[in-house]
Amino acid sequence: MPTHRIGGSTRAVEFAPRIAELLSRYGDAPLFRLEPDTIGIADPDLMNAVLSGRPANEHERPTFKPVQGSSVTRTEASAFMQALGADVRAALQRPVDSAADVSGPWPNAGQIYLRDLLFGREHLWLRLMADRRLEIAPKLTWAAVTTGAAVLGKPKRDEPLSKLSKLATLVLDAQNYRDRRRAMFLYRRMSAPTCFTVSALVTSALWLGAPFRDDTPNRNILLEALRLLPPTWNILRMASPEFLSADERIGPGDDILLFPLLSHRNPKLWDAPEEFLPERWDELDSENHPGYLPFGPAGERCWARHLVLPLAERLLDLVRRDGLVISPDQTKAKAELGGLLKLSEVRMVRA
Ligand code: HEM
Predict the structure, then answer these.
(1) Average pLDDT over the chain, rounded to an integer
(2) Which residue's CA lies nearest to atom 7 of ligand 1?
(3) Cα-to-centroid distance, 9 and ligand 1 (Å)
(4) Burial grade of 23 (CB within 10 A; 0-12, 13-18, 19 or more)
(5) 64 C-beta closer than 6 A to ligand 1
(6) pLDDT 10s digits, 132-170
(7) Does domain 3-54+76-350 correspond to CATH entry 1.10.10.10?
């Protein structure tokens, strides 16, 4: 696999060949044809032109795409997001567990910490929904959901509801099996990415820059990790007549992939684009910097970004509190090809 050294670091990222090819071939191309029916775009103005064509449709939305063919309503989506927000706020208000140990292989170690922090108090079947192993096959998720929904039933009255997450009460309050199964599927859609993607982001930050200077704010570290290794490295918009006016090279049958991975490294938009420089965010505005869209386009940004960042900061706090360092014998980390750009294993040890 081709490797990619960030700045002068002794640590390298080994990108999957397809991603490495994108970086080397299209690094400075504003628009390029990837397949007979797919256009890639990395130029911020062209991205804006496409994105202003129309909002994302329900099949392009990662979290609230239809559940088994049935659309998720705005009201339903808001209820789940509000529940998750309340759970994250409640978890972060509790004092940090002095015994918490996040050494070991990441992102696994961070993901387990978050799962226990947010959902550790609930029923085993619900905790299973945040389990990484369900990623292996969608059928496995569906099997776990259908069985879990049948097993859970109504909440037992001896189980204090205050101990459960708000997300869990949405599942347990469902009036019948079908509603419970649907709520459980959405529980999975919310809980799993909260644990995986946040831990994946922090893993990238650690690999790119740890150990950090004491005066470097967590927020800057995360914004910089989101720039160089954006978990959502491409954003899909399916072929649509609204996109034709953005550029004459876009045809009526072309799907469009927007690449934050490339716009985040464009030398026209960034000084020293390959360097991991958290301090650049002292000056830059992460909400408005051209071509910077780790949480999606303005107007359609990730609904969870204000939850994701404080959770990621909690993980960084723990790593910094315990003085964890990357295992000195590790010099490469792999970024596999997948929907989420993440490093497969970074070993964190006590200094
Ligand atoms: C590091 C973590 C995350 C990153 C980098 C991220 C990034 C993004 C991006 C780029 C979009 C725009 C997608 C598009 O326009 O096609 C998006 C949308 C969205 N994200 Fe996130 N996200 C993260 C975590 C989460 C989590 C944990 C949740 C909720 C559990 C979430 C919920 C949403 C929702 C609801 C939308 C709006 C579209 C939809 O229905 O899916 N995100 N996110």
Answers:
(1) 90
(2) 295
(3) 30
(4) middle
(5) yes
(6) 666 656 666 777 777 777 777 665 645 665 678 899 889
(7) no
